[in-house]
Amino acid sequence: MIVEDETQLAAVRERLFSAFARADAPVHGHLDLTYRCDLRCQHCYLHEKDDWPEMTTAEWLAVLPQLRDAGVVRLLWSGGEVILRPDLGVLLAAAAALGFGSVVKTHAANLTRDRAAMLAAHGVLRVDVSIY
Question: How far apart are the first and last CA of the chain?
């Protein structure tokens, strides 16, 4: 989410403060978009990575407003390797349009200059990199 003026900043602050003031609803959402991964680390807890079913783009797009309505303000996009989802940019853009702050978790082996630019363009606040 990119804040361009003081009015937007005040609205974001109000949304965050009200979210953290509640004790009855989630503030953060952890979304595992895929279990697929192009690495085969011995320590990985995800078995049969390539055989797990995945939600479609449309299904994720339907979930995002529900998360917003529940009070979620920040999303962690993860999985196996989230960069393997070709619709990641679409989902991040939709999340930004709904006012979410996004964090992406990746092993970064597939993080090209273009993909990094896409993450930045869609308001990703932080990229968490796992190093193996």
Answer: 30
State how far the Cα of 131 lies from the Cα of 13, in Å rounded to an integer. Answer: 33
Q: Distance between CA atoms of 23 and 19, rounded to whole angstroms?
A: 9
Q: What is the mean pLDDT of each run of 10 residues along the chain (132 residues)?
A: 74 74 79 89 70 91 95 92 96 96 95 95 93 76
- DSSP lists the bridge partners of residue 124 as 102
Retrieve residue 82's tokens.
């989230």
pLDDT (0 to 100) of residue 42: 75
What amino acid is encoded at 25 in this protein? A
> What pTM value is reported for the model?
0.81
Return the ∠ at Cα 130 (arms to 85 and 31), rounded to 5°.
Answer: 45
Residue 46 near residue 78, CB atoms below 8 Å: no
E strands in 13-123: 28-34, 74-79, 101-106
| Residue keyed to tokens 């960069």 | 83
pLDDT of residue 83: 95
